[in-house]
Amino acid sequence: MSAEPSGGSAVMAVAPEGVPNVTASDDLAALLTPVLHGVVWPDGTAGVGDGDVVVISSKVVSKAEGRLVAARDDAERESAIDGETVRVVAERPKPDGGRLRIVENRLGLVMAAAGVDTSDVPPGTALLLPEDPDESARQIRRGLNARLGSRPGVIVSDTAGRPWRRGVVDMAIGAAGITVLSDLRGTRDQYGRELETTVIGVADEIAAAAELVKGKISGRPVAVVRGMAHVVTAEDGEGAGSLVRPPEEDMFRRGVRET
Q1: Domains of the chain (ranges, CATH numbers)
Q2: Is the Nucleotide-binding keyword given for this protein (predicted)?
Q3: What is the per-residue pLDDT across 28-38, written as a single tens digit (0 to 9) for each?
């Protein structure tokens, strides 16, 4: 599906303050409703409407879903990583004597330490990614719709590194009500040439834009992105799981391969 904006366009992102600490069994939609009501846009309007996208860090989703596990020492942390690992992609020793593992986790995501996180959690614990981030996004979307009277798209985002590039970026690991991929194959550029391979990872780009205003240490785990209404859909859609490249399309899964 193609999801190109029409005419002139602008994208805005706001990360509101006031998101409370999240604990297990909290209703995220209920917690976020007053925060989202308080979002103020540059044109003076407030709140979240149809066509907006609410981007939520996976960490708060995991906390609400009770995904904390024991990690009182390196052995317990490694055990938590093992439990989330499907395939080891690469590993190397760290200066502190530990090891860095890049693995494919059970969601199909290739990440350091399987996405197991020990930052911003109580000492002696680690946080796993949501069990089903797409279902998490769908539930949050339903809850926001019931409370806000609007139906924004929802993205659950997480941070990952990228092959051949320094620095980490946020990407979508869960999505509801979003066209996650914009397939431009078969369309033509301004010179009339047909595009043969261009498929844009729209949901990842929105997640990365939201991270520019959320930040890692600012205590603002939620952002609202406006200006992407052309990718917000009435139906929840296929979700971010469809962004994971299938093994048969992965040229780098087993190293060098001639095709």
Answers
A1: 1-67+129-246 (3.30.1330.100), 68-128 (3.90.1660.10)
A2: yes
A3: 999 999 999 99
- Six-digit token pair at 12? 């805005």
**Does the pLDDT at position 8 exceed 60?**
no
Contacts of 36 (CB under 8 A, 6+ apart): 16, 47, 48, 54, 144, 148, 222, 224
The encoded tokens of residue 233 equal: 């859909």
46-75 pLDDT per residue, tens: 999 999 999 999 999 999 999 999 999 999
Per-residue model confidence as pLDDT tens digits over 158-207: 999 988 899 999 999 999 999 999 989 899 988 999 888 888 999 999 99
In SS3 terms, the chain reads as CCCCCCCCCCCEEECCCCCCCCCCCCCHHHHHHHHHHCCECCCCCECCCCCCEEEEEHHHHHHHCCCEEECCCHHHHHHHHHHHEEEEEEEEECCCCCEEEEEEECCCCEEEHHHCECCCCCCCEEECCCCCHHHHHHHHHHHHHHHHCCCCEEEEEEEEEECCEEEEEEEEEEEECECCCEECCCCECCCCCECCCCEECHHHHHHHHHHHHHCCCCCCCEEEEECCHHHECCCCCCCHHHHCCCHHHCCCCCCCCCC
Per-residue pLDDT at 5: 64
The token pair that represents 259 in the structure block: 């095709």
Alpha-carbon distance 185 to 7, whole Å?
20
Grade residue 6 by pLDDT with cuts at 50, 70 and 90.
low
